[in-house]
Specification:
The chain is mainly α and about 230 residues long. The chain is built from eight helices and no strands. Helix 2 crosses helix 7 (about 150-185) and helix 7 (about 150-185) runs antiparallel to helix 8.
Length: about 230
């Protein structure tokens, strides 16, 4: 971002957008957009809205990381790096996810994996057969990223992208649940049901994008090991 803009790239991608959309969803679900539909906003109201969106964005990011990144993309499906390094064989759900995500949510070619694991084994001072922790390999690549020209900018870009997609996916999930509740409590207004369906599609689409950029992020890091 430009120097005169008060937020960093990650503030904008990961916090402001997600928090702002969550406030819109909450306002619509609980008060039919009474607050955000005001036509004339004072400077104080604008500042309060931006600050509220930023705070809400931090909460969204925390919950999205815990639920989607730490639980879903770890316990329900494998982390991309585990598949990339061949530490796990993809199950049926991971194969479907890989088909949707495309590149990098799958194993690296054998020669690439072998080079990465051999280099990691040398760094760790252990036989290559004992390199079984993806986090160890990731940390080696992450440390090296500071010494490789251009690597940090690519890694940071993928981080911003996957953080954005993760948070928007989580907001879409919350919004879908809120819309289902609103449609149900308002005796099934058809427009709310269609909005709920749209929210569900956004959740799925942005979750796939989240996994795609997370896969690219982890691939960019571990390829620096070799």
């Amino acid at each position: 971002m430009k120097n005169y803009f008060p937020f960093t790239d990650y503030d904008f991608y990961a916090y402001l957008t997600g928090g702002g959309l969550l406030l819109v969803a909450l306002d619509y679900a609980f008060s039919n957009s009474t607050y955000l539909s005001h036509e004339n906003w004072s400077f104080v109201q604008i500042m309060v809205a931006i600050a509220s969106a930023h705070v809400a964005g931090h909460i969204v990011a925390m919950l999205a990381q815990t639920i989607l990144e730490t639980f879903v993309v770890s316990k329900v499906i494998s982390k991309p790096i585990s598949l990339q390094l061949g530490f796990v064989d993809p199950n049926w759900l991971e194969k479907i996810t890989g088909a949707l995500v495309g590149r990098y949510y799958s194993s690296f070619p054998e020669t690439t994996r072998h080079r990465i694991l051999e280099a990691a084994a040398t760094e760790l001072g252990k036989p290559v057969e004992e390199v079984t922790d993806a986090e160890d390999v990731f940390q080696i690549g992450f440390r090296k990223s500071f010494d490789v020209e251009g690597a940090r900018s690519r890694i940071d870009d993928f981080r911003n992208q996957y953080g954005f997609c993760r948070n928007i996916s989580f907001v879409a999930l919350i919004t879908t649940l809120l819309l289902i509740w609103k449609a149900w409590s308002d005796s099934g207004i058809q427009a709310d049901w269609w909005l709920a369906v749209t929210g569900g599609l956004v959740f799925i689409g942005m979750f796939v994008r989240f996994v795609k950029f997370l896969s690219s992020f982890q691939a960019e890091v571990v390829r620096l090991v070799k």
